[in-house]
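Progress note, project year one: complex with BES.
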Amino acid sequence: MDTDFVPREQARMLRELSEFLSIPSVSALPSHASDCRRAAVWLMDEFRRLGCPVVNLVEGEGHPVVWAEGPAVPGKPSLLIYGHYDVQPPDPLEEWETSPFEPTIREGRLYARGTADDKGQVYCLLKAYEASRDADGNPPLNIRFLIEGEEESGGHVVADLLRAEPARGQADAVLVCDMSYYAPGVPAVYTALRGICYAEISVRTLQRDLHSGSYGGAAPNALETLVRILSELKDEDGEIRIPKLYKSVEPPSKSELKAWKGLPFDKEKFLAQEVTARALTGMKKHSVLERLWALPTFEIHGIRGGFTGDGAKTVIPATASAKVSLRLVPGQKFEKVVKQLRKAVAALTPKWADVEVQIHHGNDPVQVDTSDPVFDLLNEAFREKTGNEAVPVRAGGSIPIVSQLGRSGAPVILTGIGLPNDGLHSPNEKLDLQQLWDGIDIFARFFELFGEQGEIRAVDEDDEEEEAEDDEELEEESDDEEDTEAAGAGAGTAEG
Ligand code: BES
Ligand code: ZN
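Model obtained:
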């Protein structure tokens, strides 16, 4: 491992990363489709510069996946690295101190959309790979990269690829670096990710908009109907009022709850510095960490309808719609939650309205077993750099492909180099440069330590048998009338 790599190559790395971040690869906006492709091509060029003998662009119905393989190193374990090159839309633009796609350094932090989520972290792993190679360009292990462009927008290209070519998902371990430290100086590994059900609720009450004076008092208002339905879906204490929604929620284990209690957590600081609100909301009978990691949520992301232009217009809107999502926790299944949401909305629909629930995307929650020895190696790399091992935590967010990545039985390492205040999906997203430099050393060291393990068999026959048994168990588990759908994601080490 090249220990001088970071100080020697810093200036070049800042140039390269800035170039990558300048490409506005916003996967949700059709107008940025060519930028997503440019980001993918940028990565392919980078993988070629790094001497990868296999570099593919995998096309599908959506933004392409980049696949790259380092040179084969016989007798060494294999590591699959997953990341995403797409980013969230940058709006509201006026709240950015500097433009989201003109990366700028202020006080040791690099500001741009995608710095932490996830282009900066993908770049960190590329440079760790570069630093870990020997003088002939050979890495210490067999490394393969799977970098997708639709993580932020619910696309299917990477899922279709892994389904069609499961061999691409086979490895001795999978590394996903798309999250953050628990706190400055305290790295984290994640034992669960929430799933999601992203929906749009559309209401029509009239054939056309009407004069609110001539008809107000007698004609049904679509926007009002919509907000009434929305407000019925969650009560003031944060409890979601979808019948049976909490029934399948598995509470965290006693040992998990105990571990969370032991984590440093300053509620006031969290409120003031991360949430930036006057008070926290949600179900008060549960701790904040439980609310963030172990309970489902219902959020309204945006409402469309009526008149929102400058000035005033007196109108009764005929249509209105809202984008909403539920985050799902272990025990819940996406398909079942879809049915529960549809049923709840139907029950709240008044006779004067047509209401439609359209599902944009969704996935099951995931749990990860972190007992595999590979986590000890990562901990060693973290300890050498930060003085601390990773604390086990859960993520409130989702990474849809993870349930599929665990299916080969390989341990899935969910970790990251970000900090909790990086502002993912917010204006002024940033990455602290020291986190990037340390991250390069940490992962280069991890590659080296993992490489020292020699060859490991990805899935042995026992594991395969266990997997088949797990699937059967899941199928038998159906617990009530709606539960006829298939077992869903997540056999193997990452469990749905
Ligand atoms: N990096 C995040 C996931 C994440 C967020 C992990 C916070 C840990 C803490 C990821 O890129 C993300 O934002 N995913 C989306 C997926 C969704 C659009 C299906 C999310 O969670 O909103
Ligand atoms: Zn994200």
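Residues 459-493 have pLDDT under 50 and may be disordered.
The CA atoms of residues 96 and 427 lie 5 Å apart.
No further modelling is planned for this target in the current period.
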